[in-house]
Each structure stands twice: as C-alpha cells, then as structure tokens.
Write a structure and sequence with these properties.
CATH class of chain B: Mainly Alpha
Helix content of chain A: 25-40%
Order of helices and strands of chain B: HHHHHHH
Largest sheet of chain A: 6 strands, mixed
Strand order of the largest sheet of chain A: 6-7-8-3-9-10
Distance between the termini of chain B: 35 Å
Distance between the termini of chain A: 42 Å
CATH superfamily of chain B: Phosphate transport system protein phou homolog 2, domain 2
Number of helices of chain A: 10
Structural class of chain B: mainly alpha
CATH topology of chain B: Methane Monooxygenase Hydroxylase, Chain G, domain 1
Order of helices and strands of chain A: EEEHEEHEHHHHEHEHEEHH
CATH architecture of one domain in chain A: 3-Layer(aba) Sandwich
Largest interface: A-C, 27 and 22 residues
Largest sheet of chain B: none
Shape of chain B: globular
Number of helices of chain B: 7
Helix content of chain B: over 70%
Strand content of chain A: 15-25%
CATH architecture of chain B: Up-down Bundle
Radius of gyration of chain B: 20 Å
Radius of gyration of chain A: 18 Å
CATH superfamily of one domain in chain A: P-loop containing nucleotide triphosphate hydrolases
Oligomer: heterotrimer
Shape of chain A: globular
Strand content of chain B: under 5%
C-alpha cells in the first residue's frame, strides 16, 4: 500500500482484529473498532484492560517496548499503518499524542509548540502561523501570548498539558490520541482541557483513554469498553450509560469492578 | 445487583445498600397506600365513619414518605453519579413513589364517600369489592416485581389490567341502570360509581409501576413490548365499549 | 465492619512523652552527641585538604612569581628556573588526552545508553569499570610498550597524551552513559510520539538535557588527569622546552614534582620548584572543579521540573 487516496470515504481510523502479545500473554485480543471523523471516542475500562496499549498501537508507539508482537491491521485513511512500506515516523507525525503527565521539553513555550514543525523543517512563516493557531486551539494563547520565550517548565501543570496539546495540534493532525490527559491535574485544569477537547472534536477525530466514567459521560460521543484485552461493547455515549447491553459493561460503569 | 447477602466492603461507597434502603422505604409506603385503598373501600361499603377517619389521618404520613423518598433520591444522584442500571433504578423509584402516592390519595378520596343509605342491590357492592381486591393485588405484585428484580412478573401485570377494566365497565353499567330506574340510595350509588373510577385509576397506576419496573431492570421502554396505549374514556351505555 | 480483630489499644498513645509500651522516651546521649559530633567529623574530613593546601602554599608562594610561569627550567633538573615548559606540556598533554577520551568515551557512553541491548551494554559497562580500576602505572607501561616502542613515537606528547587519554576514557564514558540514560523516559516518549527520528531526538531533545552532565564529567576527568603521574612518567621525559611538535617530548608538572623531590634530597633549592609545580596543579584542579559546579548549577536551574 503506497499512496493515500486524496478523498477517502470510510472511517478515519479503522482497527481490525488487533491482537498484541507479550510473552505468552495477550494484552489485546482481536479488537475491532472504527473511529469516524468529528467524533470523540472514550476508551474506558478497569486498570490493566489494555486501553493504554490499544491507543499506543494506533501510532506504532508499541514498537518502543521490546517484546511486543502486534497482529491484525490498523488503517489510517484506508492504509494499513503496519505495512512494511510504511515508516512509523511518518505515522506518528500524522497523529498527535498527549500523555498522562505533561511532557514539555526544557525549551521556551514557543519552541515546544514548534517542535513537531521543526522536525519536518517547516519554514519560519509556516511555524509562526501554525504555532499561533495551535496555541489558540488549545486554549493557551491568552495566557502565554505576552511572553512566548519563557521556559515552558515555568508553566503550571494544567498549562503544560495544554502546551502538549498545542504541540500535537501544530502539525494539523487529523487524529488526536490522548492517554488519560487529566489524571494528574486538579479539577479546574481538568475542566479547561475537557472544554478544549469538546471544541476540538468538532474538527478532528479525538480518541481519549480515560478511567473516569464521569469524564467520558461529560465529553464523549461514543464509548468503547475494554476488559482484559477484549472489546466488550461500544456505542453512543448516552446509550452505553443508560442501557449497556453487556453485564460487564454495567458492572464497570456502576463502579462494581 | 441488589443481593443483601454480600459481605460489606467498607472500602467502597455501597451503592447497593443505598438503593436497597430506598426500596425498603418504597415498600413501607406501598403498604400504607394499599391499606388506605382497602380500608377506604370497606368504609364506603359498610358506612364505617371511624374507619373513614382513620384513612384520612394517614394522608400526612403518606406525604412524608413521598417527600423523604424524593429527597433521598436526589441526594443519591448527586453523591453516586449513577450510570446504567443504577441510574434507571433510581429514576424508576422516583416515578414509582409518585404513583404509590397517587394510589394512597385515591384511597383517601374513596374513604371520604360516606353514606349509610340502603342500596337496592348487593351486586354493585360485590363487584366493587372485587375490583378493590384485584387493583390492590396488582399494586402489590408490581412493587414485588421491582424488589425481586423480576421483569417477567412485572410484564404479567398488564394482562390483569384488562380484567379490571372489564370489571369496571360491568360495574359502571350496573350502577347506571340502577340509577336510571330510580329508587333509593342514590347518593350511595353515585359514591360507588365515583369509587369505581378511582379503583380503575389504582389499577392504571399499578401498570405504570410495572412499566417503570421493567425499564429499571431491562432498560426496555413500554413501546418495545406492548401495543400502543389508547385511552378508554369513552361515554357509557349505547354503543359497544372500545377495546383496549 | 467486624470488631473481631480489634487490637487492644496500646498504653500511652495519647501521652506524647511515652512510646507504645508505656516507656518514657528520652533522647539518648547518642542522639544528643550527634548534634555536635557530625560537624566535628566534617571538620576532621576536610582538615587534611586544608593542611595540604597550607603546606603547599607555604612552600610555593615565597618563590612563586610571574617569572616562574614564563621562564623555562634551567638545564639539569632541579637547578632552578621557571615552570613554563612543564606548564605548557601539561596543558598540551591534557588537550590530547581529552580529545582521545572524548572520542572514545563520549561516543561509547552515548552508544551504550541509546543503542545497545541490555546484555551488550552490561558487558561494555563492566569493561569500562575494569579500565577505571586498572592501576595507572600498568597503563603507563602499556603506553610505553605500545606507543613509545612499538609505534616508534618515542617519549613524546603523542605517547603521553594518548596514554593519559585511555586513562581518562572510563570517566567520560560513565558520565555520557549516565547523562543520556537519565533523560526522563516520558520526555523521550513524547519526542518519539511527535515523530522525531532517532537522530532528531538525540540532537534536539536528549543532548540539550544530557550535555551539562557530560561536560561536568569531562572537566572532572580533566581534573583527575592533569595530576596523574604514572601514565606519563614512562611515555615522556622532562625537557626544558615546551613540546616542539606532536611527536616531540613534552614535560609535565607532575614530573617536576617528582624530580624536584628526588633532586631535593641532594639539592635543597630544587624543593621550591616541586612546591611551585604542586601549587600550580592544585590551582588547575580547583579551577576545573569550580567550573563543574557552575555548569551543574546552571543546568539545574534550566532543567528544573523536568525530572518529576
């Protein structure tokens, strides 16, 4: 599979039969799931259910951990990202990823946001426009516009996390992957990031791993529930929370497991 | 989900225990309300003023139950942030509490129809007593189905409603005939007519309780397992009554 | 909640002067002694160094002058003169040695931290530790056999420099290895997740974080290396002139301490030269250490909050 079709009709990200093994243990077991555009999907489940592993397979970050074997396909705009001809670096540049803890580099705020663009040798003008836009989209612009050369490490935790979101958005990805982005933040900072995600889901595909059912209830359009590496159930949020079909899902959302 | 035999784990906020407590209050409220209907009907049929007073005095405690359950439910929603089955159960309990409140008030209304006039026939009294028994049984069965988490038992209530409706039409026709033919005990007969209407409403409320119970247990809404409801408020006598 | 396992309430829990069993808790004499004992021990530890500095300064300062630093030693060891040639020689040898040690140690440490698998990395690290533990005289002998004799360089700047470089390599290796290994893994993940190629990660993310630590290690290695005598003793000779070329003999300060001392047994005036050489060495070592402190402080400020 080489060139991408310029206009693609199907789901932006499509996962089929995804199985991840580590030393005789299955971290993910034949997961099949689609992610359409302009949707925020929350991937939820109890600890150890494989949701972090799942989201990391979407941009081939699993390759950083030795000993993980990945089977099945993950398609981005129809192309299998695990195909031999595909460079993982390119895959990661098409998708943005935000982690559990804020991961700002020891550089200025500007340089942090521009990082992804510098990797692809964008021009100063391109960087200028993209960084400003990204900082606005992530809701950080008003707070930092005065001094963008300040060290990023001088920002608060919530601001750092929004900077990480800006860094991911600066390269204008179609997909944003977030792994429990508000776990380490206080309620006010959490609220700001949730508001940001709600705005973003109007434009791109947002895939949010969270263990917080209430958060999923607040901002997601769809919920996918994983347990012990298997996809138990997925569907529109209101339906999943009012009337889950599987007993396991009901147990999870009511806090029994 | 609500087995009272699970060992209590002090680490978790015990949602099951909270819901069990709510259901317990609901059961007590139902016993009170159903008792009001039973005693109210008997007071009407026997002309027992003392019994009538007793029913009237039970209105205040009934109202307190309603208020307590409502307050408790809101508190649970705020604290538990329930989802899925818990959410449906709590919403159902709220609605069911107001249905039970209405049942009690219907008993209250019936109890206030006091007259010791003699009536020309025994038949209306028998039919009314039969209606009372069946309607009350429906309410008790419906609440029982909720507490036992038995959706099938809840669905069985709707068939019983048809029988109560048939009884109601029969009784209504009988009373209208008696009233037309003149004779004594008009006041009493009118009271019985009104009471029959109230008892029909009791049965309707029991159906509502059953409906919410099914929703709480399975998530199904009424349209998914019953034909659409039509109102049976047609005028009596001449033409054949519309089918339910 | 059952009460079956209730533990009897310990006596004295509400009394702050007693412990669980009711005994009165007092600061023992040991606890109290610690308060003044530790500062005392601290003084005892730095006393030798202070003493050292005092004696060296006492011996060197009377005869130390600008002339000492700018004139060459007189021919015939120990007969007086300045320390210009040994000073230049030490600096030159150190420069060559640092170059060699950087090339081997930095690249080696970087490769071990970033690219080798666990087993190979372990083997390399053990090797470096063995190298660090090798007696420096053995290294000097090796240098003599390999560079002076086998390669035919003779006692020279090159021979001494390369030998000293091998001596310094393990220290720079360790510094580089640790520096790159301690780049926080979440930072590395973030860079890779953003689509950085390995070389981009190294240049843009890892090195800015690791280099201060590497630099500190380099200066530290230099401070150690400038004073090492054994590696250079067999690989160069003390001459009165600064080195004329890479393969010409080069003098060095430690050699003059050594020879000054030896000659001084016979000729007392030579002792002064030894003291002066020692003093110069101390100055260089202290200077390098101060540099290390400055780098570390600046890096700490810049990287604050990164290592949570």
């Amino acid at each position: 599979m080489i060139a991408s079709a310029p206009s693609f009709d199907g789901p932006v990200v499509s996962v089929e039969g995804l199985t991840v093994r580590a030393k005789q243990q299955r971290l993910l077991d034949r997961v099949t799931l689609d992610f359409a555009g302009r949707t925020l999907t929350a991937v939820v489940g109890p600890s150890g259910c494989g949701k972090t592993t799942f989201v990391r397979t979407l941009n081939r970050m699993t390759e950083l951990t030795p000993g993980l074997r990945v089977e099945g396909t993950v398609r981005y705009l129809g192309q299998n990202i695990y195909d031999r001809s595909v460079n993982p670096v390119v895959v990661r540049r098409r998708m943005g990823m935000v982690f559990q803890r804020p991961t700002v580099f020891p550089m200025s705020i500007w340089e942090n946001a521009a990082f992804g663009l510098r990797l692809v040798h964008a021009t100063e003008d391109e960087i200028d426009a993209a960084v400003t836009e990204a900082l606005q989209r992530s809701g950080l612009w008003e707070e930092v516009r005065g001094d963008l050369d300040r060290p990023a490490l001088s920002l608060s935790g919530g601001q750092q996390q929004r900077l990480c979101i800006a860094r991911a958005l600066a390269v204008r990805p179609r997909v944003l992957l977030l792994d429990e982005p508000t776990s380490a933040l206080d309620p006010a900072a959490t609220q700001r990031i949730e508001a940001t995600l709600q705005r973003l889901k109007e434009e791109i595909v947002v895939i949010l791993v969270t263990h917080n059912v209430a958060q999923a209830a607040r901002i997601s359009d769809r919920i996918a529930f994983l347990h012990s590496g298997r996809l138990i159930e997925s569907g529109p949020t209101a339906e999943m929370l009012e009337r889950p079909r599987e007993a396991l899902t009901a147990q999870f959302i009511t806090g029994r497991i | 989900m609500t087995t009272g035999t699970e060992p209590e784990d002090p680490e978790t906020i015990n949602h099951d225990r909270e819901i069990l407590r709510l259901e317990h209050h609901l059961r007590e409220m139902t016993e009170l309300a159903v008792g009001m209907v039973a005693d109210g009907t008997r007071a009407l049929l026997t002309g027992d003023t003392a019994l009538s007073q007793s029913v009237v005095s039970r209105d205040a405690p009934l109202d307190r139950y309603d208020l307590n359950i409502e307050t408790e439910t809101i508190r649970l929603v705020a604290v538990m942030q329930p989802e899925g089955p818990d959410l449906r159960t709590i919403e159902a309990i709220l609605k069911i509490a107001s249905c039970v409140d209405r049942v009690g008030r219907l008993g209250f209304d019936i109890a206030r129809y006091i007259s010791d006039a003699k009536v020309p026939s025994e038949e209306p009294g028998r039919l009314l007593a039969e209606m009372d028994r069946r309607a009350r049984a429906m309410v008790e069965k419906a609440i029982g189905a909720l507490l036992a988490r038995d959706a099938t038992a809840a669905k069985a209530i709707f068939a019983l409603d048809d029988e109560v409706d048939a009884l109601y039409r029969q009784l209504r026709q009988r009373l209208i005939d008696l009233l037309r033919s003149g004779g004594e005990g008009t006041e009493r007969l009118v009271y019985m007519l009104l009471a029959s209407r109230h008892l029909e409403r009791v049965a309707d409320n029991a159906c509502k309780v059953a409906e919410k119970t099914v929703y709480a247990i399975t998530g199904e809404r009424r349209v998914e397992y019953l034909p659409p409801r039509t109102r049976s408020g047609s005028p009596p006598a001449v033409g054949p009554p519309p089918s339910r | 909640m059952s009460g079956a396992l209730a533990v009897p309430r310990p006596v004295g829990l509400d009394d702050l002067t007693r412990d669980r069993t009711g005994h009165v808790v007092r600061r023992t004499w040991f606890d109290r002694a610690m308060r003044w004992l530790l500062p005392l021990l601290y003084l005892v530890a730095i006393l030798p160094i202070l003493d050292l500095v005092y004696w060296v300064a006492r011996g060197a300062l009377p005869s130390l002058s600008l002339a000492t630093l700018t004139t060459n030693p007189s021919p015939g060891v120990g007969s007086g003169g300045g320390l210009y040639a040994p000073l230049v020689g030490s600096v030159a040898i150190l420069a060559v040695a640092t170059g060699v040690a950087l090339a081997l140690g930095f690249l080696g440490g970087l490769a071990t931290a970033e690219y080798l698998d666990e087993r190979s990395a372990g083997i390399v690290r053990v090797t470096a530790n063995i190298m660090a533990g090798t007696p420096s005289i053995v290294l000097g002998l090796f240098g003599y056999i390999a560079f002076v004799t086998f390669f035919g360089w003779g006692p020279s700047l090159a021979a001494a420099g390369v030998t000293l470089g091998i001596f310094m390599t393990p220290y720079i290796f360790r510094a580089a290895d640790l520096a790159y290994s301690s780049v926080p893994s979440h930072i590395r993940e973030a860079a890779v997740g953003a689509g950085a190629r390995p070389i981009q990660y190294l240049l843009r993310v890892a090195s800015p974080i690791a280099l201060p630590q590497v630099l500190s290690g380099v200066f530290l290695a230099m401070a150690i290396g400038v004073g090492e005598t054994a590696p250079i003793y067999l690989t160069t000779t003390a001459v009165e002139l600064p080195p004329l070329g890479l393969f010409a003999p080069a003098s060095a300060l430690p050699l003059y301490i050594w020879s000054g001392f030896e000659t001084g047994l016979v000729l007392p005036s030579a002792i002064a030269l030894a003291y002066e050489a020692a003093f110069l060495l101390l100055v260089i070592v202290v200077g390098l250490n101060i540099l290390v402190r400055l780098i570390a402080a600046r890096a700490r400020r810049r990287l604050e909050g990164l290592f949570q």
